[in-house]
Amino acid sequence: MALDLERTAHQLDTMMSGLKDFSSVQTDRLGESLNLLEGFVQEVFLGKLDTSSGLFQWTPPIFPESPSKSIKEPSIPVDYSVVGVDGSHIDVNRHIPVDCFLINTGSAYLRYGAASEAHLSSSPKLFVPPDETVISDPNNPHQLLQIQGTILGAIRAVKEMETLAMSLKNEELANSEPVPVVGLVDGTLLLLDLLRPGIPDFVIDSVLTEGFLGALNDIKKTAEKREIVVASYISLPGSDEIIDGVRMLACPYTKSDCLYHCGDIKKGTRPCDSASEGLLDRDIMSSLLEEGGRSELFKSNFHVARNYYGDNEITFFYLNTGYEIARVEMPAWASEKRGNIDLVHAVVMEQCRKGGGYPTALMEAHEQAVISTSDRQYFLNLVEEVLERNGIEFTTSQKDRSKRLRWL
């Protein structure tokens, strides 16, 4: 046995003693953050946000008028449809002679009411060299980036959104009796990993602007003709955008210049830490939201995203599903109408009940998309078979070979 479980258990016991002290401190911090939100004044907050622009080191969202409010679950239409899309992929394997990868996209169309029906499907797409496994600069063909890791994850998000766009405008849905339709994807609509320093502009243009946002714009066009709303569902969200806003509320200075006032102060002892350090948005919302209730709508305020997203700027609310605090994101054009927000609220709640805590449409889409361990091995065997059938020797690295053998 490679892992010494006895020594690991002792380390876990040590960790728990520290967590107990941490939990007590967090309770105090949570209480202070709730007090700040209860006394929230939007005009004061927006003024401070403006005067501290470029100086405040966190990125608070645009707060609604009542950030601590819990909005009751609205009624759900008798007839409605949900389209869920999810994806899975097999990453590039550098231990084999072909730099290929595969994305499998699953979708679930569920209609409820008088004419209930369901359609499930999956669509695998193999990306092969030389052109499909790299992104090249259209202005300089010799400038290219290999698709793998973070970039591959973003490409998968593009394929999921493109699949949702196609599903929402397919003939079957278009020709059926018009009912409200909610399109759901799993995970965030904010592809911030693509906007981090070091990612070339041509990659951002190809993947984000033309790919992901292009698909969202296609959905927007379809929504102009029929009652369609798109949203994403994030289970157990790790976001702290609202906490960033709490930091600003807790800041005692007129202008929140973090480096000037607190640059030399140790983390955990800064004035804003007393209401925020170590907290997540879901910690606050678990104390504010009734079961079935949602928060008011917030708008993400990441400067790098604003330059690209336009009408697709991301708005979000938190939802107490009765099982967890979830985060639901919608593009700004979809959340402009209160009726659209209410529809997503009601449908997601009902989907979570049907799915035992997670939206049924996304659960079914995941089942269509998931690539099991045996599937991955079978895929590798297929690659080997196809190569050898065409006279190409299937070689693997000695490191990969060693992992398959036991010497002792």
Identify the strand order in the major beta sheet. 3-2-1-6-7-10-9-8
Order of helix and strand elements from N to C terminus: HHEEEEEHHEHEHHHEHEEHHHHH
CATH class identity of the largest domain: Alpha Beta
CATH architecture designation of the largest domain: 2-Layer Sandwich
Task: Note the main attributes of this structure.
408 residues, alpha+beta, archaeoglobus fulgidus dsm 4304 fold, 3 domains, 8-stranded mixed beta sheet, two-stranded antiparallel ribbon, 14 helices, globular
Structure commentary:
This protein starts with a helix and ends in a 5-residue tail after the last helix. It is built from 14 helices and 10 strands. The radius of gyration is 24 Å and the shape is globular. By secondary structure, it is α+β, with helices and mostly antiparallel strands. It has helices at residues 5-38, 42-51, 150-168, 171-175, 201-223, 241-250, 258-262, 281-288, 303-309, 332-335, 338-354, 360-369, 373-389, 398-403, and strands spanning 80-90, 101-112, 117-127, 134-137, 140-146, 181-186, 228-234, 298-299, 314-320, 325-331. The strands form 2 sheets. It has an 8-stranded mixed β-sheet with strand order 3-2-1-6-7-10-9-8, with helices on both faces. A two-stranded antiparallel sheet has the order 4-5. Helix 3 runs parallel beside helix 5. It has 3 domains: 37-68 and 240-279, no CATH class; 80-239 and 281-371, 2-Layer Sandwich (archaeoglobus fulgidus dsm 4304 fold); 372-402, no CATH class. 43% of the residues lie in helices and 18% in strands.
